[in-house]
Every structure is written in structure tokens, then in C-alpha cells.
Amino acid sequence: MPPIPVDHQTALVSRLMKACGGAYSAETRRKYFISGPQWAAAYQGQALFHAPTRPPIGFEDIIHKFAEIGIGHWTTHDTDVIPTEALGTPEQWEIVDRIKRALNDHGLKCSMVTTETFFHAVWAASPAAEAPGVREYAKFRVCNTVEIGHELGAGFTVYWPGSLGYYVQGAIDETDSLRWYADALNAACQRDIEVAKRKGRPALKHCLEAKPFEPQAEILLPTSDAMLAFIASGLLTHPEMVGLNPEYLHELMWGAAPRAALARALLAKKLFHFDINDGYRLKHDVDIGVGLVNPLDWLNVLVLLRSHHYEGPFNLDYKPPRTTSHFGVFEVSFPTSVDRFITLWEMAGEVSADPIIKQATDALRAGGPVRSTDDAEDLTRANRELLTLHELIAHRLFQILIGQHRGRVFFT
Ligand code: GLC
Ligand code: MN
Ligand code: MN
């Protein structure tokens, strides 16, 4: 193939995107509780070793693009849209008004707001720093986010503590830091109760998000399970208002089974919100689009969530790759992420309805006939042949994933 002229390249991308087929309409996409983060769309491709590859883009354009794609909800950090120095000032409320207008004009809703407690130098010693002034500032920031959330009509607020941890050990007492972090959450819940009452709105759902490594060398609340223990620790004045926002990759990163982490959150009735993306075990937070690395695992995750009637948001917390252009972010990256999610969600429905999986599951749950439940040999014999169904079910899931259950065949 000869070199492709620069001014032909977007047309080529669009043509191949169309040729992929299988795209859902914006109307179909809007039926799902899918939210698009401001920070994901605005991510310019920068990292410690990487310069940006895309130009900046503001919330008006992003909201417009999300509307065209059919992403019905928008989420943001406070400082994604409001400069740090304007937080809490009249300028903040002018920006919030502009956001409201953009959302209204394009028929989107703000579902979640979150506080950035990791980027600015003020958080160098974490939002639960030794210095009382920094901790008061952290309270101001999370309370201010609660106010913004209510103003924008959000139902959720997320806390990824970010720099709650350290690089060098010994300087901080972890028990103090966790107490101080709880003080900030307590202030946010208290403020929420007041604002909700004043505005006649339901209180927000406060969702903790864990990440095992980054941006600190050691993290004080590295996993969703650590967060559950923290919620139940007695440090929170309103533990009933606080739940989880697990992120798929953040659980995978430490080597866990994300589906098992979600199951534990479900049992605790704390699965409030879910960040969807993909990536690799025991690596850094690469935030790849959902289903591009672990589609079979993703299918299994969605089977679990469907069968437990999870109704919270699916937040597209991924980062369009550096290789994707500004044009590609909205032409390819967002629509394909949404569509893979919907396809996997539909497949999860097929898994639940599949007669083979159903019969196999029912048979496993029926077990074999046993003479006595205190005879290990007898129990083993009774179930030996049935247990082969475990692998058969896994095979059937693979077939559903690739369409073989519908007669798709490969010729040799
Ligand atoms: C940061 C994290 C992301 C988290 C978000 C919400 O962007 O990278 O995982 O969901 O903050 O606070
Ligand atoms: Mn996340
Ligand atoms: Mn992540």
C-alpha cells in the first residue's frame, strides 16, 4: 500500500470503523447507565515518560460528543473543570452554571462528582497529612464537591484517596492517617445530609475507590476489601452512606479475581458504583478500554452483576491510548468501548438463559445421591462425574463469547 496522505486518514479510520459493523445506535446506548468521565475524554496521553499526544479539550465539547455517541451520563473531578484557585469562589459557580447549560442542551445528566486529592502539590503528604491545615483543606474540598454534586443533580460521589500513602516508611503513623482520612469523609457525609435536606434531594452515595499501587509507593487502603474494613472500622460516623466504587483493573492489578472482589462487595451490600476498563495483572494502571484484554473474564463479571441485579452506573474509567488521535477518541475509542460493554452485557444475558449452562448448573447444585453426609468416599463417588461439568461450563462460556453457540464455525 502506498503512504496514506494525511488528509485521507480520518476518512480511512471512519470507513474501517463503519466496516467493523456491530455498532449500536445512540438511542440504544443511552438505555444503559453508562457514564463518561471528563478526565477520560480530556486525557492527552501524558505520563511520567510520555508527552501529550492530543490537544486539550473542554467540557462543552466533551458533553457534546458524548451526546452524539449516546453516552447518557457525565462524571468529573472538581479540578477537571474548575481551576484549583477558583474552587469555592463565585467563579466556580459560574463554571457550574455553564456545565448545567451544556448538560441541558445535550440531554446529558451528571451522575457522579469526585474530588482530586492526588495531583496538586498540596497533597504531597496526602489528604490526611500531619499538618492540620492541609486536613482542613481536604474537608473543604470534599464538602465543596458535595455542594457541586447536588447542584449538578448527581447521585454519587467517589473518593479515590490518591496520595494516601507514602514513599518512605516511618514518618507517618498509619492509624493516625486513617483516622484523619475518616474525618474528611465524615465532614462530607455531614455536609451532604445538610445540603440534601436544604435542597429536598436524596443524599449522595459516597463511594470509596481503592488502587493497590500508584501514585504512592505504599498505599494505606490498597484494595476494595481494605475499604470495606475501613467502612466497618468504627471510624465513620455514617457508614451506611459509604460504599464502594471498585475499578475492574485496580482489583486485577494486585492479582485478585475482580469478579470475586465484586462478589464480596455485593455480599456487603456496598457495590454502589463500578469503574469499567481493562488491563494486566501486577502491572501499573494502564486503564485500557473494557474487554480488550480480558473479554472472557469480563463476560463472567457481567454474568455475576446481571444475576445479582446490579443497577448502579458503569463508569468508563479508561484512557484512550496515546496512539489514538483526538479525532479517534470520539470516532473509535468511546463508541467501541460502549459497544463492547453492551455486547458483553447482552452475552451475559445469553449465559444466564443458556439451556446447557442452566442444566449443568442445576445438576451440580442437585449433586449425586449420597448414603450419608459423613462418608467422604461416598460423597466423592456421588459427585465425581458431575464435577466434569465445571470445565464444560467454562467451554460453553467461551463458545458464547465467540458465537459458536449460535452456529459460528471455523473451517480448516
Ligand atoms: C482518578 C483515578 C481513577 C478514579 C478517579 C476518581 O482519575 O485514576 O481511577 O476513578 O480518579 O477519583
Ligand atoms: Mn477509577
Ligand atoms: Mn485505573
Could you explain how this protein is built, in words?
Helices cover 49% and strands 8% of the residues. The protein has 412 residues and is α/β, with parallel strands linked by helices. An eight-stranded parallel β-sheet has the order 8-6-4-3-2-1-10-9. Helix 7 (132-152) links the parallel strand 3 and strand 4. The model has no long low-confidence stretch (mean pLDDT 97). Bound molecules: alpha-D-glucopyranose and manganese (II) ion (MN) (2 copies). Residues 209, 247, 275, 317 line the site of one manganese (II) ion.
The profile of the biggest β sheet is: 8 strands, parallel
Mean pLDDT: 97
Count every helix, treating DSSP H or I runs of 4 or more residues as helices. Answer: 16
What distance separates the N and C termini? 29 Å
**Order of strands across the widest beta sheet?**
8-6-4-3-2-1-10-9
Spell out the helices and strands N to C. Answer: HHEHHEHHEHEEHEEHEHHEHEHHHH
Bound molecules: alpha-D-glucopyranose, manganese (II) ion
Uncertain runs are none
Computed Rg:
23 Å
> Beta-strand percentage?
5-15%
Specify the structural class.
alpha/beta
How many strands appear in the DSSP assignment?
10
Measured as a percent range, the helix fraction is: 40-55%
- The rough form would be described as globular
